[in-house]
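[Archive record]
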Amino acid sequence: MNNGFLYSLDNKRYHTWNYHLQQKFGEKVFKVSLNAGFTCPNIDGTKGVGGCIYCSDAGSGDFAGNPCEDIITQFENVKNQMLKKWPKAKYIPYFQAHTNTYAPVEVLKSKFEPVLALDDVVGLSIATRADVLEDDTVDYLEELSKRTYLIVELGLQSIFDETGKRINRCHTYSEFLDGYNKLAKRGINICPHLIIGLPGETHEMILESVRQTATLKPHAIKLHLLHILKGTPIAKMYENGEIKILTRDEYVDIIVDALEIISEEIIIQRLTGDGARDSLIAPLWSLKKFCVLNEIDKEMKRRNCYQGCKAKY
C-alpha cells in the first residue's frame, strides 16, 4: 500500500532519484561513472595541493572507469557491468572523478560529446566545483542543457568556511554561491553535494548546511557520509584520534532530520555512500548500504514524517 507521499513509486517517504527518472523517461535509467583524467585546482597548485582531505587518488571516482582507457571504452565496460543488474535500461554518463569542467571548452567537448552520441544515452551528469565555471564553459553547459537532460553536480560539502579550510576545499561558500548562480540563471539543473560528519561539525551545523542549500531550490541534492579511505590525509587524522566517526544510528537520525527540512520537490539523489571495500577504513557499517537505507525508512515511518514536512521556505 502506498504511504501517500507523492514522489515515490516504492513506498519511500522522500523524493527518490529512481522515481524522478522513471517519471521522466518511463523506464529504468542508471548512471555510468567515468574518469576523464581531469585534475583539480586544489591538487595542481592553482589553489592548493593535496586535494580535499577525504579524497583518494581517484578523486571521488573510486567506482568510475579506468582513466587509462578512452571514454568510450570506459563507458562500455562500466555499462556492461551495470546491465547485469538492469538488463533493459537507458544510461546517463556520469563524469565523476575530480573536477570535470577544469579544462578548456574544446577539451570538455572532446570528452562529453562522444558519449552523448551513443545509443540509449538520455542525459549527462558532470561533477565539478563551483569555482571552476568559466563563462565560455557555462555557455557550453547551457547549450548542452537545451539538447539533453543535464545535471551539474557541485561539491559544496558544508556552508561553513572554517570547515572548508579544515578539509582543504580551497574555495569559500561565497564562491560556491557565485558559481551556483551562474548556472541557475541559465536554467541548468544543479545538484549540490553535502558530506555528513565532517571534522568539527555539530548536528546543528550539518542541518544548517542542509537548510541553506535547500533554500537555493536546486534540482537535486546529494547527502552522503564521510568516508575514511586508506592513503588520504584524513586517514592519518582518524588514526591519531582527531576525528569521531558517526555511528549508524547517529547518521540515520541526522539524515531524517535533514529530509524533513528539504522541500519535497527537490530530488534526493543519494542518502548514503559507497566506499571501496579494500580501501575503506571507517565507518565499516556503511558497507551495508541497503541496511542503512532501510534504517532511514524505518525511522521515517516511526516518526510518521515525510520529506519537506518541516520545510519553511
The mean pLDDT is 93. The first helix runs from residue 17 to 25. The chain has ten helices and nine strands.
